[in-house]
Design goal:
Length: 283
């Protein structure tokens, strides 16, 4: 009996470890100012006749990459992984008419900047290294915005002088940069609730959640998706219906290996807010 008990404990521990494998959250949450912007522009955005499958012209957007050296005086990141991450992002953003390219890569030779927070060191870093008319990608060893650590942070398009993305070096492989670029171009997380909780039947999809009506209602997937890309949560909406979210959307907090899609209306929002706010990056 004791052996069976110990075996069950080990099995449970393994399952928990499988689910909570140290995944950090997305650091970007909706702001009231950008939510107001989405509401104000919603009718105009939805009046655009936009088909991501017919996009033929790609606007090139430069990315200036700043690698912050770690305490050992090394980069702690492979340049090829940065290029691969940009290429992965381009595989998605081509459907919104955008192609990113690395303008240059420089090294910040001061490990004091390697842990980025809302503090004076962060402001000093930006004053010294940010360049205009470029997306400034800062690769750091750790990020903390608010009370918790996160893997990435950026600003929504309506924020002035917001051509900045921060990313934890450990997340440079895979789709994490694509998610940050999604926020940078106007996408909310699919699990966003600042404007209201989206119902499972999606009847309030235009006024709650991510304010996009072809994404599934998402109760929040952080540590709720196992390695086989199966959702294991049991959340219900305000009507008592169980959520059945997709684990594949780039703007969710599903594990990186499960994320592989953006929807047509997400591409339309990217297109709309890029042309409304981010065209300065092409000059």
């Amino acid at each position: 009996m004791e052996k069976i008990k110990n075996w069950l404990i080990l099995l449970l521990f393994g399952f928990i470890s499988h689910v909570t494998s140290g995944q950090l959250p997305d650091g970007v949450t909706a702001t009231q100012s950008f939510l107001d912007e989405i509401i104000k522009n919603y009718r105009e955005e939805n009046s655009i006749s936009f088909d991501p499958n017919t996009v033929s012209t790609l606007i090139k957007v430069p990315v200036r990459t700043h690698i912050i050296m770690n305490i050992n005086g090394t980069a702690g990141v492979n340049v090829n992984n940065i290029r691969n991450s940009i290429n992965l992002a381009n595989g998605f953003f081509r459907y919104a008419g955008i192609q990113f390219f690395i303008d240059s890569i420089d090294y910040v030779n001061d490990y004091n900047y390697s842990i980025i927070k809302y503090d004076n060191l962060r402001k000093e870093l930006l004053n010294r290294y940010t360049v205009n008319s470029r997306i400034n990608l800062f690769l750091a060893d750790s990020l903390q915005f608010g009370n918790n650590k996160c893997y990435g942070f950026t600003y929504f398009p309506n924020v002035p002088d917001s051509n900045i993305i921060y990313l934890d070096k450990k997340y440079i492989t895979g789709n994490s940069l694509t998610t940050m670029l999604g926020h940078f171009m106007g996408l909310l997380s699919t699990h966003e609730t600042l404007g209201g909780v989206e119902l499972v039947n999606e009847r309030n999809c235009s006024s709650a959640g991510d304010y996009i009506c072809d994404t599934y209602a998402d109760p929040g997937l952080l540590n709720m998706v196992i390695d086989s890309c199966k959702y294991i949560g049991s959340m219900r909406d305000d009507n008592g219906r169980y959520y059945v979210p997709t684990v594949a959307n780039i703007m969710s907090e599903s594990p990186d290996k499960c994320k592989c899609i953006l929807t047509p209306l997400q591409y339309r929002r990217i297109y709309y807010y890029f042309h409304r706010y981010r065209l300065y990056l092409t000059r």
